[in-house]
Amino acid sequence: MNESFLSKNLASIPSQVSEWIQNENSFSEGTHYKRVLSKTGDDTIQVDGVWIHSQFDPKKEALRFVSELPHDGTERIYLLFGAGIGYIIPFLLERPKVSIIWMEPFPFLILEAFRKFDFSEALLSEKLVLVTGDHLEDQLSEAVKGKGTHPISFVPHRGSWQWKETEYHRLKLIAEQMFHKKDVNLATLTRFEKIWAKNICYNLPELSQFRPVSDLFGIASDIPVVVACAGPSLSESILEIKKYRNQFLLLAVDTAVPILTSFGVDPDLIYSVDPQALNSQYIEDYQGEGILIFDPTSTYLSLRLQKGPNKGFVTSSPFPLLQVLEKTASQEIGSVPFGGSVSTNAASLGTLMGAKKVYLVGQDLSFTKGLAHSKGAILEERLNYLESRKFRREKHNYKQLFALPQKQVLGNGNESYITNEKMLIFKKWFEDHTKENPWVNLTKFGARIEGMEHSTFDKEFSLEQNILSKQIEFVKEVKNRIRTQLHQDHSFFDQSLLKKEIQNTITSLKEFMILVRQGLTVSQRIYQQIQKNQINPKTFSEDIKQMDVIDEAVSQKKGLNEILSLGIQRVILTITEGYDDHLSLEEKENAQLGVAKKSLLLYEGLYESVQTTKRMLAKSLYRLSANL
């Protein structure tokens, strides 16, 4: 063992990881390990009586194992779930075009490996990445960034798994979850990129009349908040909701509104997040007193309904296009944590409102009783107009159940439910965040949310008169405070300033379009010369120099690039993440042509985004001017 290797290796990884490895006591009580020499004289290790490597020839064992792993000379990632003291890693590092990610939960094994081998060069170049300690999913996500299309080989280390299978299997589950979540997020991003941009632009005139969601932060500190989600079991909780209705603030996701109102229940707040036009139909006939909580990317049709809530509180958004509105605000709008579904946002808002407790109802996260939606949901009601001899609502429900691969999940009574991978992502989000939030699950049926208390309305709310009267009074006070905030005399957003911001952005986009058009023309010339193999050294060199100048000028327009990026996420992922579905086989095989194609795609995307964003902002400016 070599202490100089240890020092070099520790210096080659992030300091916080290095400190964790050296300071963390990874031994459980009773754990015993010893380092011994194998029959061939190489170091091996035995933990709790289990040989982590061969006691005869650990190098030969590692080489034989590595030879069985796939390798065809192309880019590939080997994801190691344990590596013992590292014998297989040097053999993997010899292979060209491979990246190695080593997940290891036990620091003492890392230290032993670092004393045995010098991995410093591979660690510094990030050909080898160590994932250990806390936030493993985030570390793993960062490690595979930019390698989106590289095939991944899962490599469990046999000796480590024989010793602590549960710990290493957990690493595998984390990896599977991360990759699935990444695929879902990227699919969502590329699917909705243009819809989000359109909604933000078209929502600007109406949102300029909204109040900021930050007005609600801390406003409900004395009362409970019930978040009504649209899971299949919501309709079965209606009686309890009505029974205790005046004891809590009811925050409904927009998909649950038709279900609640069909039973005579009116929510206090209605949260809308989904960008699709269909979501406007959940509130198109709503005539209650509920106040809208609106994400700027939610469908603009919701704010143009003749009926329905069209005034309320707007949340912030991470998309730079919203800066056009934020610059006209008198203070911070306020952001709400986003977990991928409207119910995650609503639960987070309940916490930010300072609620004593936030109760979830209708949060099944499963196809309870074989249903994809709660009875009375808009998707179900629409089928009244679509049913025919060849298309029945049962067939639609069946398609919803099997749209994604089915998974099994346990309920609160250890009963089994059918769910899918998308809902499991939301389930994991709630489980990851429940420790720091006062959330209680009142959902009657469906998946168990680990770590979140499960209860009933009857346990949580009282009908005792002395308690009831105080609670009702507190809820009334909060409702009045919310309406007072909503109807403040002064406007939060300066509409005159918003007009100027939109006009200035349009002007900047017009000027930027000239530069982008030049980049598009030059990138087309470069691509065509490479494709046709007709490169004129002089003109090609001039085009490359001109392209460099244009690229530099474009990169200087940071603010505009951030605004435009929302509409070209698929192109950005092609360039940064390697999602090369835009590239032909010829372009993939010819590296020079592939680079030229990516440059061409970038300028084509920028040009299209400039045109559409400019046009959408012009329409919003016209509507805003007409309203003033």
Note down, in words, how this protein is organized.
This protein has 628 residues and is an alpha/beta fold. Helices cover 48% and strands 12% of the residues. It has a 9-stranded parallel beta sheet with strand order 8-13-12-11-10-9-14-17-18. Strands 6-5-4-7 form a 4-stranded parallel beta sheet. β15 and β16 (416-420) form a beta hairpin. The longest helix is centred in the N-terminal third of the chain and has 50 residues, at 158-207.
Characteristics:
alpha/beta, flat, nine-stranded parallel sheet, 23 helices, four-stranded parallel sheet, 18 strands, 628 residues
Question: What is the radius of gyration?
Answer: 29 Å
User: So what's the overall shape?
Assistant: flat
Helix percentage: 40-55%
Biggest sheet character: 9 strands, parallel
- Poorly predicted runs of 5 or more residues: 377-400
Distance between the ends: 77 Å
* Percent of residues in beta strands: 5-15%
| SSE-based structural type | alpha/beta
Write down the overall mean pLDDT. 86
How many helices? The count is 23
The side-by-side strand order for the widest beta sheet comes to 8-13-12-11-10-9-14-17-18
Total DSSP E strands = 18
Fold topology:
Layout lengths: L2 H9 L3 H9 L9 E5 L5 E5 L2 E2 L6 H10 L8 E6 L6 H6 L4 E6 L3 H10 L3 H6 L2 E4 L4 H8 L8 E5 L1 H50 L3 E2 L12 E4 L9 H6 L5 E5 L3 H6 L6 E4 L18 E4 L17 E3 L8 H4 L15 H11 L5 E4 L16 H5 L10 H9 L4 E5 L5 E5 H13 L5 E3 L11 E2 L2 H4 L4 H22 L8 H38 L4 H20 L1 H8 L3 H8 L8 H5 L1 H37 L1
Parallel strand pairs: 4-5, 4-7, 5-6, 8-13, 9-10, 9-14, 10-11, 11-12, 12-13, 14-17, 17-18
Antiparallel strand pairs: 1-2, 2-3, 15-16
